[in-house]
Every structure is written in structure tokens, then in C-alpha cells.
Write a structure and sequence with these properties.
Layout: E1 6-8, E2 11-15, H1 24-31, E3 37-42, E4 45-46, H2 48-73, E5 76-81, E6 83-86, E7 95-98, E8 102-104, E9 110-113, H3 128-137
Parallel strand pairs: 2-3, 3-5
Antiparallel strand pairs: 1-2, 4-7, 5-8, 6-7, 8-9
């Protein structure tokens, strides 16, 4: 149980799946296992009828939270998203997937990004020395106030 990291010949990686991408607790617990990259495979998009009103904000929120995970944990984040329109049946408006998979560095800078409408393979250099450098200069993991986090396991506070 719990969050896992996997040692590969290229470095240690972790994977969180889809809905996990919205939770800083999952990113932090995973980052504490010291991966160089957290991968977030997902299928996120919008219903076509909501795209005009909410599309820009929803997309930017998705990017911002992923970039925030990279910054807060001093790691690379690879956010993988599908493309296309999927309908459950011919009468369904479906879901239009955003595509735009991206890789963010430990300061949240997007260093590679895919398009919105075609399958692509993203490649970016993961510099393990940069992780160490950022964590030394922005010591968020070191300076956590763990003595004040007891209530994090509660659903709500009074």
C-alpha cells in the first residue's frame, strides 16, 4: 500500500494516476521516496458544451497544479494526457481531451510540451544535479513543519 518509487537504470521514478494529480499530499508523499520524476498519466478534458465558458481556466488550473507539484517538491513532473474526442454513444456530447502533455522541471518551468491534437513522444533531459541544486536552495522538503501536520489525516476540521 502507499505510494511507490521504482529504480530504473536512468534514475528513480514514481507514478501517480489521474485523480491523484490534484492532491499535494500524494505528490509530497511520493516525492519523499526521492524520485527524479513523478509521472501523471491521465485522461483529462472537458465536455464540449463547457469548453467556451470554462476551458481556459480548467486547462490552466491543470497545468498550474502539476507545475506546483514540481516546485513544492523540487522534482521533475511529467503530465501525460490523451487527445481526441470520446463519446459513450452517438447521442453523447463526449469528452474532448486536452492533449498538451508536458514536462516541468524542479522550478515548474515547462521544458517540453506536446500538441493538443496529435499523438507525440516527449523527450526532455532530467538533470539529477539540478534536483539537488534546487532542493538545496529552496529547501521545502527539509523545512517542512511536520510537528504541525497531525490533522492532515482528518477529512474536515472543526
Amino acid at each position: 500500500m502507499g505510494y511507490k518509487s521504482f529504480k530504473t537504470k536512468f534514475g528513480t521514478i514514481s507514478t501517480l494516476i489521474c485523480w491523484d494529480q490534484w492532491y499535494p499530499e500524494a505528490a509530497r508523499l511520493t516525492a519523499m521516496k526521492n524520485p527524479a520524476v513523478i509521472f501523471y498519466p491521465t485522461a483529462i478534458g472537458w465536455h464540449p458544451y463547457e469548453k467556451k465558458e470554462h476551458g481556459k481556466q480548467q486547462f490552466e488550473s491543470w497545468q498550474a497544479i502539476q507545475r506546483g507539484h514540481a516546485i513544492a517538491n523540487g522534482i521533475y513532473v511529467a503530465s501525460v494526457n490523451r487527445i481526441g474526442l470520446e463519446k459513450q454513444d452517438k447521442n453523447s456530447p463526449g469528452i474532448e481531451f486536452w492533449g498538451s502533455s508536458f514536462i516541468a522541471d524542479p522550478q515548474g518551468v515547462i521544458i517540453a510540451q506536446a500538441s493538443t491534437n496529435k499523438e507525440e513522444i516527449l523527450i526532455a533531459e532530467v538533470d539529477l544535479g539540478r534536483i539537488e541544486y534546487i532542493r538545496r536552495n529552496w529547501p521545502f522538503l527539509r523545512d517542512r513543519r511536520i510537528d504541525s501536520y497531525d490533522e492532515i489525516t482528518k477529512r474536515f476540521l472543526d
